[in-house]
């Protein structure tokens, strides 16, 4: 297990380095100047402009800039964000917890809901419940995320105003709430963006879970479990589900990049002050160092996610535990 | 064909068992009117080729037939005096794994890969005896020891993939016998194992049968296994019993041409024979059993009558039945050597 972790961490480092390089090259290729507004503004005198260029190393050849970028990245120095007027690290540190909160709530909710829906569908294959859930998941599966977000907002914030439309807290009022009131206020703001992500992801998980469950349910050991006299409940939820979860764990690794991407839209629509919203703002402001940092951070999240999925897989499936002795 | 007399009561009575599968290709009559009895402590063998209904018969006794399969109304499976086909599912569950236990052909796929073998054995004690976790675990180790697994306490903590095929089958046996069942159904228990391991497993089954005083239904396509283990044999073909006799009677005086064929296809040690006899053709699809005698198109002796009429079971000897018109017209049987020659050439 330890060897597996070490090997996967090394792989993760390589992947992150590739992502960093790609981000750097893409930004170089993109039109516009990293100093953006300062360059185009005719009221900035040319000598100030040159001084700024020299200060940020932008007058040096590309390969030197690249080397500098990698060195700083390795040291954890992500550079200065012009659009935010503060270090990139600080801007990300402010936004990341909000995104992680949204994503972890969405992931947990989606897995619970998706697995349950998949098992119910498989357990009553061909029933009304199976078909209704099938149709429901297909709708969410094929719906664009931003559309679902806007519809959720329209229905539950405008027509039936039970949840706030946007933000993470209620402006002004929040500061005067009791500690419990603050928690409730945040939770109310979390409901719509989280539910949108949950529905989108759960729809995919449910389809995988149903297929995996049906596949496992025909295997010999399920017949053995029944022959032992176990109640059907124990057969399905213990013997079948435990095995049918294995392919779904793989989905966890795939779900993370989807969530990172999906969060960009969802955060934008609900004005959730997270990484996705920061990314959109950074791109609009041509804030190159911030854009690159967000790309690198995204790749770190995704590789950590798939590493986590691999480890969970080894925990769930004893056949994958590498230390296990084998008796011929 | 009930055994006459006033001897001990049978442990299991199967009467007119019919298990059909309604598929898109038609109704598959996998088991079509099977009747037999199993006496206490008796080992009864069921032989036949793949697809003849052996396994479906055993799964029907356990009521483990899954849709689209159904046990047809009118079928009776009487176990310890009760027709289990009429029991509510909850009561049936108390019989499964408790009074009737079952072991399967493929010990690798028949064990759940994600639980330790100890957990899987202990589960039986937990569900039927409501044993505590600790007691159930101790019981599992005890059962593993009983089946001759060395270092049982350590093995109990291992997963199926860490054990050899023979050991896995011992685990299956340990799991089946936790509750000391009165009937063990063994569906091809040694088919997937090496020959040397096969002999060990059969010997173990015999020992444990003695110890637990249970009856065994042994399902196999291997007449050698039957000869070693069973007292009586049922020969199944195309969903029906075509011959039933004691083992010695069946081997000495096979009556049904299908049984003759099976015996002729058995390799015999030291026999001066260069090639094995085969029965021409294969078992027909269960959706289309042939009219008349279901074996007639593969039969060495077939004439016009079995093509039209379905033969009943004839009593052809002491406790010996055969579903063949040769019982009425014995003159139509030619010497067996012809069968071997014809079989080899067909």
The oligomerization state is heterodimer
Number of domains of chain A: 2
Strand content of chain A: under 5%
The side-by-side strand order for the widest beta sheet of chain B comes to 7-8-9-3-10-11-13-12
Low-confidence stretches of chain A: 324-328
How many helix segments of chain A?
12
**Structure summary, number of beta strands of chain B:** 13
Query: What is the distance, rounded to the nearest whole angstrom, between the alpha carbons of the first and last residues of chain B?
Result: 35 Å
Major sheet description of chain A: 2 strands, antiparallel
Q: Give the overall shape of chain A.
A: globular
On the 0-100 scale, what is the average pLDDT of chain A? 85
- The ordered string of helix (H) and strand (E) elements of chain A is HHHHEEHHHHHHHH
Distance between the termini of chain A: 22 Å
Q: Could you tell me which chain pair has the largest interface and how many residues each side has?
A: A-B, 25 and 33 residues
Task: Describe the overall structure.
The complex is a heterodimer of chains A (328) and B (346). Chain A has two domains: 16-86, no CATH class; 96-284, Orthogonal Bundle (MetI-like fold). Helix content of chain A is 75%, strand content 1%. Chain A has helices at residues 2-29, 37-40, 46-55, 62-74, 88-123, 128-142, 145-159, 179-217, 220-227, 232-270, 275-284, 288-316; strands spanning 80-81, 86-87. In chain A, a hairpin with a 4-residue loop joins strand 1 and strand 2. The longest helix of chain A has 39 residues, at 179-217. Chain A is globular and about 85 Å long. The two termini of chain A are 22 Å apart. Residues 324-328 of chain A have low confidence and may be disordered. Chain B has 346 residues and is of the alpha/beta class. Helices cover 32% and strands 21% of the residues of chain B. In chain B, the strands form two sheets. Chain B has an eight-stranded mixed sheet with strand order 7-8-9-3-10-11-13-12, with helices on both faces. In chain B, strands 1, 2, 4, 5 and 6 form a five-stranded antiparallel sheet that branches. Chain B is globular, with a radius of gyration of 21 Å. The A-B interface holds A 219-221, 223-231, 234, 239, 242-243, 316-319, 324-328 and B 62, 64, 93-98, 101-102, 104, 106, 109-116, 123-124, 127-128, 158-159, 161-164, 167, 172, 175.
